[in-house]
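lol forgot to send this yesterday, sorry. struct tokens for the thing we talked abt
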């Protein structure tokens, strides 16, 4: 999503992340500004804004809704990387958070653009994303139950490197 927004003019995008991941997110070059969770109140609440929530943290979502209040024009829940902190959607100022459901949005775009145009735009966006990730993403293959469990625990405990993408297989054989 950030890669798509970075190609558009006319907006100021702010990435909100943890202190641990700040340098990584800044290094992506996708946001005009990167702040950590505790800096939300330093942003200009008078500016009409929108929230695309990848983390799902109720605490962070509440802080953004409270800070921007009626100047928050939309609130879209996309992911839940902070699944243990979810909740807190009742009585939020500003718009009610809406869940982004990719298959539903894809079906809408097929109706709007037609299947061929949808396929062309999707392919272009995917290739742009691949071009961008080549600069920073390292793919690591993990095989077998022990490696997969270790990877799962790293991810669960928030210890995984954000510049690494894991491809896991229960097979003990090395990937091609």
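and heres what i got for the seq, position by position
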């Amino acid at each position: 999503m950030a890669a798509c927004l970075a190609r558009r003019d006319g907006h100021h995008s702010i990435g909100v992340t943890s202190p641990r991941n700040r340098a990584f997110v800044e290094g992506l070059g996708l946001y005009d500004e990167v702040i950590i969770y505790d800096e939300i109140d330093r942003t200009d609440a008078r500016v009409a804004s929108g929230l695309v929530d990848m983390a799902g943290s109720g605490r962070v979502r509440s802080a953004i809704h409270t800070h921007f209040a009626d100047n928050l024009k939309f609130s879209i829940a996309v992911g839940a990387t902070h699944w243990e902190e979810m909740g807190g959607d009742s009585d939020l100022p500003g718009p009610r958070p809406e869940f982004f459901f990719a298959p539903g949005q894809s079906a809408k775009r097929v109706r709007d653009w037609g299947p061929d145009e949808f396929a062309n735009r999707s392919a272009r966006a995917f290739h742009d994303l691949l071009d961008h990730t080549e600069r920073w993403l390292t793919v690591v293959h993990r095989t077998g139950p022990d490696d997969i469990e270790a990877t799962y625990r790293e991810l669960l405990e928030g210890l995984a490197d954000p510049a690494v993408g894991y491809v896991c297989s229960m097979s003990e054989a090395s990937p091609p």
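The chain has six helices and seven strands. anyway ping me if u want another try
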